Amino acid sequence: MSAVVSAHNLTKRYGGFTAVDHINFSVRPGRIVGLVGPNGAGKSTILKAILGLVSFSGELQVLGMRPDRNRARLMQEVSYISDVAALPDWIRVNQLLQLMQDIHPRFDIARTRNFLDATDIGMKQRVSTLSKGMKTQLHLALVMGVDARLLVLDEPTLGLDLIYRKKFYQQLLNEYFDEEKTILVTTHQIEEIEHILSDVLFINHGHLVLDMPVEEIASHYVQLRVAPENLQAARQLQPIHESRQLNESVMIFENLARERLQALGQARTPNLANLFVAKMEGDVHA
Amino acid sequence: MADIQWREDQPIYIQIRERLVSMILDGRLSPGDALPSVRSIATDLQVNPLTAMKAYQSLVDEAVVEKRRGRGMFCLEGAREKLLNMERQRFLEQEWPHIRQRIENLGLNVKELMETGKGDKDQ
Questions:
Q1: ipTM > 0.95?
Q2: Is B49 part of the contact surface with chain A (CB cutoff 8 Å)?
Q3: Sheet of A150-154: strands edge to edge?
Q4: Mean of pLDDT values over A103-125
Q5: Is residue B61 classed as helix, strand or coil in its secondary structure?
Q6: Which residues of chain B neighbour A197 with C-beta distances below 8 Å?
């Protein structure tokens, strides 16, 4: 199957500042891809380029189209939820649904109503009276109605309480996602989405520092709790990261055989948060 | 909405598999019964559907469950016996050596241990 998103030497400069620097990646259909990086790493710029909101140099194809040239066509099949609640405060829910039906050729109002029926959101409520969590649900309801092939989520759960955050991802998995859909999501709360991701893209200073299916991480990275007597031997194997935990050293190794490391301490696969810290602190571009 | 605690020492698909296996072993699932759908596992446990699928695939490979087109996964005849054998094998090869080592390290007497256990139960 062809890629949903493919970028080749994707670059974005703002004046003298290079936000995204010759990035290459592709996103396959049926995947949930996490785009993870610190503030200012270039995440939002990449999302904006994919959505056709900024110009760029290099090549970028989304569903086989150039987003900056085919934006209207592309938006029929791409949905987007941003961290900034972009719905007008004064509009009522039923008016919003009507508006969507009038302007979006693929919007199915019944699907959105069905979804909203299971929430506490009233059809006559104004957006201004909805809590932040409810606004996110309303966004999600509109996304359900569009049934887009690609869903782009930019910090979708920022500022939501724990219950709404969990509900958000549950509804996404249960009612939206299937093998023909693709989700691209950015978040700071990597622990929260770790297990629903199929792939991760780590980005720092406009460069990709990791592009890998989650299930392959275990064959490339090992986190080792090093026994004190083996400290020197372990350091000689050049860990990409070392941290101290209660008088013990915890190291992360890249592309070294697990069997070799097991002799030096307790080996396991690092979780995404630990791997992220290791890759960021060890990034040569930093 | 129970919170899911995953252990870090095993891939998640293995842990999902363990849950399914224990459902079959303790008789909550019998031959012919439908297993939960991939979607419901993914939603309930908040994991990628591919991860849930992988857990099922390993059970399909071992002929413990089968996929019926358009209807989902079903528990096969003889699944419990098969899993019981595999689990016993796994216990003896992987867990028992550690337990045995621990018993020896602590200077416990296996015979007494088993008998004291029984003694406690009888009282």
A1: no
A2: yes
A3: A78-81, A150-154, A182-186, A32-36, A199-204, A207-213
A4: 92
A5: helix
A6: 48
Give the count of beta carbons closer than 10 Å to the beta carbon of residue A5: 24
In eight-state DSSP terms, residue A155 is S
Q: Which residues contact B101 (CB under 8 A, 6 or more apart)?
A: none
The two tokens of residue A105 are 């050729």
Q: What's the distance, Cα to Cα, between the start and end of chain A in Å?
A: 36
Tell me the whole-structure pTM to 2 decimals.
0.84
Spans of all domains in chain B: 12-77, 80-122
Q: Say how far apart CA A219 and CA A71 lie, in whole Å.
A: 39
Q: How confident is the model at residue A61 (pLDDT cuts 50, 70, 90)?
A: very high
3 state DSSP class of B89: helix
| A270 pLDDT more than 50 | yes
Contact across the interface for B49 and A197, Cβ inside 8 Å: no
Name, in order, each residue with C-beta under 8 angstroms of B73's C-beta and a sequence gap of 6 or more: B34, B35, B37, B38, B56, B59, B60, B65, B66, B67
Minimum CA–CA partner of A165 in chain B: B46
Contact B9 A268 (CB under 8 A): yes
Nearest CA to CA, how far is B111 from chain A (Å)? 32
As its CATH architecture, domain B12-77 has: Orthogonal Bundle (1.10)
The pLDDT value given to residue A202: 95
Q: Are the beta carbons of A61 and A3 closer than 8 angstroms?
A: yes
SS3 A34: strand
Q: Report chain A residues touching chain B, CB-CB < 8 A.
A: 32, 163, 166-167, 169-170, 173-174, 177-179, 195-198, 214-215, 218, 268-269, 271
For the record, the structure tokens of A280 come out as 């960021």
